[in-house]
Design brief:
Structural class: mainly alpha
Distance between the termini: 18 Å
Length: about 130
């Protein structure tokens, strides 16, 4: 895996903190929360896109693709947070409640679990690959 520079690592960490802050702000400041989360998601995703894998290990390549799908899901969470402010799609109230209202939480949980799994598995695969003679 290509290592990030110290500035890129800082942006990745700040993006993660902003996503956490945006999700937590939802309870107290619903107007600002989607903006904070979106900035964090874009920064986090951009830095994960900068990390690349130049090797030939199919497992790591597959895990990287799964991780990038999770990054897209994080951007989708930000969009769902914006959509949760009202009914921007013109749906009837019951449909909006069923399909949009607070469903960003489920998408965030799925994205976080995928990020956790792929990060752990990529690290294990890289250690296994480094041990091979």
């Amino acid at each position: 895996m290509r290592q990030l520079s110290s500035l890129q690592s800082a942006v990745l960490a700040i993006g993660a903190v902003l996503m956490l802050a945006g999700a937590a702000m939802w309870m107290f400041a619903k107007d600002a929360a989607p903006y904070v989360f979106a900035v964090g998601a874009v920064a986090f995703t951009a830095m994960q896109l900068q990390q690349s894998y130049e090797g030939r290990n199919f497992t790591i390549q597959r895990l990287r693709r799964i991780m990038l799908m999770s990054d897209v899901l994080l951007i989708g969470v930000a969009a769902l947070m914006f959509a949760d402010h009202g009914n921007p799609f013109g749906l009837d109230h019951l449909t909006w409640l069923n399909y949009i209202h607070n469903n960003w939480v489920v998408a965030l949980l799925i994205a976080a679990l995928i990020q956790l799994y792929t990060t752990y598995r990529i690290d294990a695969e890289l250690r296994k690959e480094a041990k091979k003679p």
